[in-house]
Predict the 3D structure of the following.
Amino acid sequence: MIVYPALDLRAGRVVRIEQGDFARETRYERDPADVADDYARDGAQWLHVVDLEAARLGRFLEHDTLIRIAVGSRLSVQAGGGVRSGGDVEMLLDAGAERVVVGSAAVRQPELVASWLAQYGSEKICVALDTRPDDHGHLRLPVGGWQHETRFTLFELIDRFNRFATLKHLLCTDIVRDGQLAGPNLELYAQLRERYPQIEVQAAGGVRSGDDVTQLAALGVSGVVIGKALMARQAHLPELLVAARRAAAA
């Protein structure tokens, strides 16, 4: 299992927002590149970077910050936010991203994103699907910073991708648990692993401890993205990495 420390960026700084609400923003004063360096020293191999403003406006704005992180740290970076075109994919790859995370476009234009998977390869694209249940329990996929509802459900869209492309990397965030430090939605990830054993699933939302990492690894989850718990110092990266290594050796 890979542990992905997460940096959410806005205006060149590290931030966290609650439940997709930009009015509930916590801003951290440390430089993003310095935070990335600390994660590298703690033993991380990958970093997950998201441009939050881009997710809302539709264009990646943190190009210079991404370059500084990718060039200055020893980390492989998966980065996303506002990716709408093949040109955006190329821009992020050229800036040093090892893998590009595609969210809203994957929901709105799955056939287009399938063409990127074919063009750039399944290792270079991670489809990110943020989900929450509606009043009937269906797992919906809001986009645009979680502000706009869409017609697909989670499993409908994954099935659609499987008809058009080889999807290898899937990041699935439980919106309800994101930033709440309440533990991951184990039932959700168990369902994903059972239905799509060929896909490498990354879990996000609520992860806060080595025990959470261990439980997710037991389900066969390939990666875990953790942000708030690290920035709030309620979890420590070395502990999470140890849990991931022990799970891999078990």
Summary: The longest helix spans residues 237-249.
